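Course assignment 3, question 2. Fill in each field.
Student: A.L.
Task: Predict the tertiary structure for the chain below.
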Amino acid sequence: MSHSRPLLALAAAAVATAVTLGAAGSVTGSARSASITLQAAPAEQLPTSEQLKAALLTAAELGPDFTEIPSEASASPSDGASPVAGCDALRALLNRQDTGASPQNPHQEAEFDGPDGNPMVTESLTAEDSAKLTADFATVTDAFANCHSLTFTDGTGSAVTFQVTPITLGDRHDAPAVRLDGNLAGVVLNGYLGIERFGPTAMAYGFFQRDDDSSQLASVYYRAAVAKAEHTLGSTAGSTTAPAAAV
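Answer field:
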């Protein structure tokens, strides 16, 4: 039990890194040249970092027992090492260079703990050029579809293998999501990962819990995250165009 919380925190951080779209790409070689060429074209209107922050869930919206974890206090994979094994697609995403947020790739994220760190909820929003977002979204969707097990190892050497199963978390059946089930020293560990698109913005969602394998809360908070993003950003879940372009 003592290792389950840090391992869940590591899993949350690792998965958030893997499914953070846009800001996670490394621009090299021909891709860098393409990026330079695209800069000459009229820039697509993206939501600002402040707008993305306003579209994230808050601890108060999750419930009175939740607290937001400062980003500097969140667990993160060790430099140069991947804590994930057993899934080449997600591991490749984890190992991509993080170029950080910028006006061209605004990004915001939040992590919340329930009582005693159970459950954990993570959410991130990243905006980027629609064509690139389409490609990145397809990459993560493919990774979800082709991952059947994931093993996470934390800094203490504790490891747990999660079985990965596709699931529908919200109202849109085409929104990619998976369920993770594992066991650490007799403690049931359960997680849910989902991604959704709102025009030029992608949402990555994670829910992790111990001693429970019900998807009810994971689905409730996912639906709340989708509803708030739709309302705040003005785009319907699954939309591939920005609100201004859809008018």
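Instructor remarks: The mean pLDDT is 77. The longest strand covers residues 187-198.
Grade: pending
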